[in-house]
Amino acid sequence: NYARGRNTCGAELIEEIMEKIRRQAEDCTSLQGFMIHHSAGGGTGAGLTSLLLQRMSQEYARKAKITFSTFPSPSNTSAIVEPYNAILCASALLEHSSVSLVFDNEKLYDVCCKGFGIRHPSFADTNRLIAQAVSSVANSFSQSGGQINTDMSDFHSNLVPYRRLHFMLPSYAPISGTSMDRESHSTSQITLAALSKDNFLAKVDPRSGKYLAVCLLYRGEVGPNDAELAVKSARQSRLLEFVDWVPTGVRIGYNSHPAANFKEPSMIGNQTLQSSVAMICNSTCVGHLFNRMRHKFKMMFAKRAFLHWYMGEGMDSEDMWTAQEDILGLEQEYMNAAKDGSSASEGSDSDQSY
Fold it and tell me: What residues contact residue 178 under an 8 Å CB cut-off, 6+ apart?
């Protein structure tokens, strides 16, 4: 569980891990920051990652820390204590990460099942979906093949209007293997597909919230004029609806190298795409995802179920209560941002419209 990964086993390993990170950082000529891939449902992915982020925040306070965080599915769980681990981890991300890209297993499994016809998706299948979006983000930090690129600090400053509102939703189009891949598709088509809830890699409905910021990262045969026209069309059709206090909100990046395909035979990622787009957006609808997780946490915590496993690893009920309050406050801040841009924590503990 989270407490074991953070307080006992993690505490024994953290110095060795930090020493390896220091060596890698010393070998860098121009260190921008760190990219951390983890799940938030298990003890290692949630607990050890939280401890690692805390230590990195102390030693590399001025460097960006971008996490790619896969949260558990409330309806398809592999461990009954996942709600505890997920909320505790989200609280640590809130405090110590610069930007967190949020994936969730429920949507990844849905895409594999409905989009690709895979009856029993494996971790390799879901990881391939994540990799398609992650590669576009990582490639935007490189200077090879890109007309307009960015760095980690610029990525952070363009997407995060308030320090705590740094949880991003990723979307990708075309998702390799879908019918769209077998047809010719324009820049406008892949842009509109990326804005569709079917292409989001977290189970949210973007129409239920408003955007605070959007980053569109194009790869392959995409012209700047085509991309700008596609964004203009999306805004006119109200698929891109921003909060009132954001004047523009869209940043566009280009890289002439198309996304690479996987060499291993698979239904996912096995086709070379002439053009693709990854959208990283800061949307108030992410509050719904945290609300679902907190609801599961709240039901278990009210009965103090399984709490003794965490107490035995050095945690107490106050830690759990604080984490729950942190995420409730985050939900309310996203709700307030949709209204007037205020990040003050106001409101009641109930389902809200974000």
Answer: 115, 116
